Amino acid sequence: MRVHHLNCISSCPLGGRLMDGRTPSVLTRGELSCHCLLIETAQTLVLVDTGFGLRDVADPRSRLSRFFLALLDPDLRAEMTAARQIEKLGFRTSDVRHIVLTHLDFDHAGGLDDFPDATVHMLRQERDHALAQKTWLDRQRFRPQQWSSRARWKTYDPRAGEGWYGFECVRDIPGLPPEILFVPLPGHTFGHAGIAIDTAQGWLLQAGDAYFHHREMDAREPWCTPGLRLYQTMMEKDRGARLANQARLRRLCHDEGAHVTVFCAHDPVEFEHLSRRALHVPASGAASADPASVTGRPR
Ligand SMILES: [Zn+2]
User: Is residue 270 exposed (0-12), middle (13-18) or buried (19+ Cβ within 10 Å)?
Assistant: First the structure.
């Protein structure tokens, strides 16, 4: 099983340094990743999250909310979509038969439309809450305009008794190899999940938006930029669950760091550490790093 790290279109939030902690100024826009994974299994290609897609690039205003377009001004370049990066790696988009979603926010689900042959897997709660479109913010974040794949959605509930390093999980997802599991991490949204992947070099956990800054996983002195702290508070659906899951993930990083590599969707430092590529550079066969050579957490 081979794993490629893809940044499927950066978001460029207002607040610059207050958000990403590394842009020189607070007056220019920052840059956050949208960290997706392409997994080559024996039978098929599996995509974990999809970032923004080709239709978002072509016509952002018909697909994305004005509010988030103004706030995040995504770097809408077609070459950074999952579809184009997968083609650049030498595959066809029709080779992607399964997509596993951490959640349905617009910056994770935008690429779904680009993979008409894929079954889309997510937790049931995520689908139900996104479809309900209950609040103004829900209608800005969950965008039915991005859901032409709806008939191919498959949903799951965590089963009691299934466990992964002390977390609940969903195993044996139909069509997927047993090495890929859901690890429910509610809080950011009600049906939010991390995706755990058992590789020859140990486990990867794509923790989605369970946290936003790599230093939130620092066991001794957890820290987050003020801008991302505010953003997470604005977006959270269940604050207690979100903070409890962050604490559990922190413990996981501390106790099992040798066996489990945890990373989130939007931290550029984690993305560059794991992909060994600058944020704005699309994947290519030649540049993909040997995952065994990447160790430890970025600081
Ligand atoms: Zn996100």
Answer: buried
Distance 291 CA to ligand 1 centre (A): 24
Going by C-alpha positions, the residue among 203, 197, 168, 204 that lies closest to residue 185 is 168
Q: For residue 1, report the distance from its CA to the centre of ligand 1, in Å.
A: 26
Distance in Å, CA 131 to ligand 1 centroid: 18
Residue 68 makes CB contacts below 8 A (sequence gap 6+) with 106, 107, 140, 141
Interval 289-296 mean pLDDT: 58
Distance 169 CA to ligand 1 centre (A): 21
Share of the chain above pLDDT 90, in %: 91
pLDDT at 289 exceeding the cut of 60: no
Question: What amino acid occupies position 294?
Answer: V
